[in-house]
């Protein structure tokens, strides 16, 4: 998280530079800066792949054979000609004219802006799906401004951050500079931890994947990562399709996919409006559907939506006077189901209100539940989005559920399970994501996957200076003892004490270095302690791998039970509320104490007010 925050802070600096040095609006300067960041990240990935290629590179006459575009294509990576590499642009001399540079078409390059435009064109030439996508408007910036932007993005932080980097940064831009854009039509971008949760539950391996509201392409990127980490090849195993009404979002998506070595067909503009178009003709053909659609969209033309199809359960409520659908949430829900083939899975983000909305929504939900294809429902707490503080829900469909859970739905209430990033943002860590995924595995009867998680935990937790003896592991899991966290907490306190002493004793000239070294050590032990807490969280609930309903967290409900609750799909309605530990404080006694404290404070306030009034009178 630290690396991402550092990157965001530097992005803020770059945006300030643009705002001060140009007359562009936020929507105008957003794309050029993101494209520069794309170029920087592409260069980072290029250098990493280049190193892999050169490891076993044959040589002729004592000289290693140079890398070629085909070498990068074989590794599903983007090849960058020298003039398009970030370090080339960063190191260009101040007087561009004196460098006698030429464009790919042989034209003179007379400014840094022209050099960057040329770089963007060279990148487009390497990727068919990027054709016409990258901006080539950098001559509108003064060279010194561009040079400063290049300097800002020339840092190692970008090399350390993976995943949907462009979508994350674009989301940050929206939150800082364009809140009006962010709230327009409910558009906002999906945080990485929610995308990972969708992917983890769906577990894509091969086939056709569609995101009919694809934004900056985060679903595609995380799916590609999941498939590759499973030892498969996302390029050959997956076929990606996307629809995105906002064209600059589609451009970001294409950039994002290209830099991660993914190919896909993304349609944008009016024909990509999912309410009125199945742009790829994929109804009934998808193995996977993932999306974070805009919530609570109104004024959708009912007749046009009906004519566009993909409504197996009928239209939601229609205003007969205006012939418009007042809330399109159940249009999206119907689409996601309709796109699936007979073994397809869908996972999507949805407004929390949709889990128990009434009238026609409720009727559609009943039909949906009765198919037996609703698989998992997850409640998510507040502050998971930069631009939206409200809670949401994750819905999962599976057209090919195991027979023994065909008439059941797993409900997970994760509203109180998260990690605080800062005052306005929460997320799930990697271990928290895997714990939530483990609950789904146990629900599906996939005990071996749960056991692999436990082995992964133990491998990490035992690989320290105070390992827990292997013969005690079964006992720890069985009894829910906090062996690891107790040991690590003691080690952490000892490390903090040593750090304090070492910093105090260090010469002034070495203090910063010593502080940095000890900070890294302490963060290591803090990470281990948090890992131990997450290990204990999952094993205290499910031991060595037996699913059970956990009050306040999860419950497997039958369709009959769902019918008894009027087809509500709100997890909280099923899992109940966890018992609160008794803190030993008598409620009535404490309330009397608070009342007495308040009375005393009011008395003191009145005394102060009299003194202030008297002092004021004396000043007149």
UniProtKB/TrEMBL annotation:
Keywords for this protein: Methyltransferase, Restriction system, S-adenosyl-L-methionine, Transferase
Superkingdom of the source species: Bacteria
SUPFAM superfamilies listed in its UniProt record: S-adenosyl-L-methionine-dependent methyltransferases
Domain DNA methylase adenine-specific as annotated: residue spans: 163-449, 505-583
Single GO MF descriptor: methyltransferase activity
Listed EC numbers: 2.1.1.72
Reactions catalysed, as given in the entry: a 2'-deoxyadenosine in DNA + S-adenosyl-L-methionine = an N(6)-methyl-2'-deoxyadenosine in DNA + S-adenosyl-L-homocysteine + H(+)
GO biological process: methylation
This protein's record includes keyword Cell inner membrane: no
InterPro entries with a match to the protein in the record: D12N6_MeTrfase_N (IPR022749), DNA_methylase_A-5 (IPR003356), SAM-dependent_MTases_sf (IPR029063), T1MK-like_N_sf (IPR038333), Type-I_RE_MTase_Subunit (IPR052916)
Keyword Methyltransferase: yes
One Pfam entry name: N6_Mtase
Domain N6 adenine-specific DNA methyltransferase N-terminal: 7-150
PANTHER family: TYPE I RESTRICTION ENZYME HINDI METHYLASE SUBUNIT, TYPE I RESTRICTION ENZYME HINDVIIP M PROTEIN-RELATED
Family label: Belongs to the N(4)/N(6)-methyltransferase family.
Protein's name in the database: site-specific DNA-methyltransferase (adenine-specific)
């Amino acid at each position: 998280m630290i690396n991402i925050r550092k990157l965001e802070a530097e992005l803020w600096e770059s945006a300030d530079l643009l705002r001060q040095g140009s007359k562009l609006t936020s929507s105008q300067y957003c794309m050029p800066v993101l494209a520069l960041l794309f170029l920087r990240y592409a260069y980072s990935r290029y250098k990493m792949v280049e190193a892999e290629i050169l490891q076993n590179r044959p040589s002729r006459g004592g000289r290693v054979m140079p890398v070629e575009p085909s070498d990068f294509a074989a590794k599903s990576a983007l090849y960058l000609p020298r003039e398009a590499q970030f370090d080339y642009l960063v190191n260009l001399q101040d007087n561009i004219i004196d460098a006698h540079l030429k464009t790919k078409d042989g034209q003179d390059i007379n400014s840094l802006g022209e050099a960057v435009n040329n770089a963007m064109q060279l990148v487009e030439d390497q990727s068919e799906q990027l054709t016409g996508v990258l901006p080539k408007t950098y001559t509108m910036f003064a060279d010194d401004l561009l040079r400063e932007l290049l300097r800002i993005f020339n840092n190692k932080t970008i090399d350390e951050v993976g995943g949907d980097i462009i979508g994350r940064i674009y989301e940050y831009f929206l939150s800082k500079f364009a809140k009006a854009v962010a709230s327009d039509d409910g558009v906002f971008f999906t945080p990485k931890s929610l995308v990972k949760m969708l992917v983890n539950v769906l577990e894509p391996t091969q086939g056709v994947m569609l995101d009919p509201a694809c934004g900056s392409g985060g679903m595609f990127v995380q799916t590609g990562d999941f498939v590759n980490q499973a030892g498969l090849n996302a390029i050959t195993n997956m076929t990606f399709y996307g629809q995105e009404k906002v064209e600059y979002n589609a451009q970001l998506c294409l950039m994002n996919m290209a830099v991660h070595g993914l190919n896909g067909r993304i349609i944008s503009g009016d024909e990509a409006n999912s309410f009125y178009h199945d742009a790829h003709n994929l109804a009934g053909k998808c193995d996977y559907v993932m999306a974070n659609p805009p919530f609570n969209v109104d004024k959708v033309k009912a007749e046009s939506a009906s004519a566009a199809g993909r409504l197996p359960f009928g239209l939601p409520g229609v205003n007969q006077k205006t012939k418009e659908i007042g809330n399109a949430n159940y249009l999206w829900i119907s689409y996601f189901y309709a796109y699936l083939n007979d073994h397809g899975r869908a996972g999507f983000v949805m407004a929390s209100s949709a889990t128990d909305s009434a009238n026609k929504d409720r009727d559609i939900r009943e039909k949906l539940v009765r198919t037996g294809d609703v698989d998992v429902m997850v409640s998510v707490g507040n502050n998971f989005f930069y631009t939206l503080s409200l809670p949401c829900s994750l819905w999962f469909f599976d057209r090919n559920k195991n027979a023994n859970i065909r008439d059941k739905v797993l409900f997970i209430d994760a509203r109180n399970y998260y990690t605080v990033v800062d005052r306005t943002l929460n997320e799930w860590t990697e271990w928290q994501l895997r714990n939530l995924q483990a609950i789904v595995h146990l629900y599906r009867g996939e005990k071996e996957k749960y056991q692999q998680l436990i082995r992964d935990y133990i491998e990490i937790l035992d690989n320290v200076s105070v390992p827990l003896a292997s013969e005690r592991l079964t006992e720890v899991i069985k009894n829910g003892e906090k062996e690891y966290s107790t040991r690590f907490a003691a080690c952490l306190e000892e490390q903090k004490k040593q750090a304090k002493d070492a910093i105090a004793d260090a010469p002034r000239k070495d203090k910063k270095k010593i502080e940095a070294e000890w900070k890294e050590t302490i963060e290591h032990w803090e990470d281990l302690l948090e890992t131990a807490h997450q290990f204990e969280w999952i094993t205290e609930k499910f031991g060595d791998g037996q699913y059970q309903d956990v009050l306040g967290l999860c419950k497997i409900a039958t369709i009959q039970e769902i019918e008894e609750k009027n087809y509500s799909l709100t997890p909280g309605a099923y899992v109940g509320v966890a018992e609160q530990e008794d803190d030993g404080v008598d409620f009535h006694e404490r309330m009397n104490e608070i009342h007495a404290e308040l009375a005393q404070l009011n008395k003191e306030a009145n005394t102060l007010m009299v003194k202030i009034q008297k002092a004021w009178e004396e000043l007149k």
